[in-house]
Amino acid sequence: MERETVKLVNVLRRIARAAGYANWIKSDPEAARFCATQYNRVLARLRDLEPNLKTIFAPLAGDVSPDVTRIAARELVAYFEDEGSEPQAWGFALSCGERSMRPKARCIPISVRCD
């Protein structure tokens, strides 16, 4: 049961990312509906596994904005995240490509452990 919960939380992260992208590019309303439908399916399965969720999280309407779906998915993920899990810090990565003579810098999350 624990393994299935981890997999469903990963799916919720992807739903949140897809909904955020759909909101950002102002995509077809069908994409927003799909994200909300998928969120509701994952929520229904998690409610079977965790009965306490029934009083905290409600299913989304089919016509909600992708931004609302993103927020709801991230809040549901937060419920399952352990407070003692490894925090993420932002670090810089440098790389040099063949096309450019200048090094490229980008931000990436790095797991940090404080002992």
Give a brief outline of the structure:
The protein has 115 residues and is an alpha+beta fold. The protein has helices spanning 2-24, 29-49, 53-56, 66-80; strands spanning 88-95, 104-111. Strands 1-2 form a two-stranded antiparallel sheet.
Give an account of the 3D structure.
With about 120 residues, this protein is α+β, with helices and mostly antiparallel strands. It is about 55% helix and about 15% strand. It contains 4 helices and 2 strands; from the N terminus they run ααααββ. The chain has helices spanning about 1-25, 30-50, 55, 65-80; strands at about 90-95, 105-110. The chain has a two-stranded antiparallel sheet with strand order 1-2. A hairpin with an 8-residue loop joins strand 1 (about 90-95) and strand 2. The longest helix has 23 residues, at about 1-25. The radius of gyration is 18 Å and the shape is flat.
Number of helices: 4
Question: What's the helical proportion of residues?
Answer: 40-55%
Give the C-alpha Rg: 18 Å
Alpha-carbon distance between the two ends: 30 Å
Strand content: 5-15%
Strand and helix order: HHHHEE
Poorly predicted regions = none
The biggest beta sheet, please?
2 strands, antiparallel
Sequence of strands across the biggest β-sheet: 1-2
Output the structural class. alpha+beta
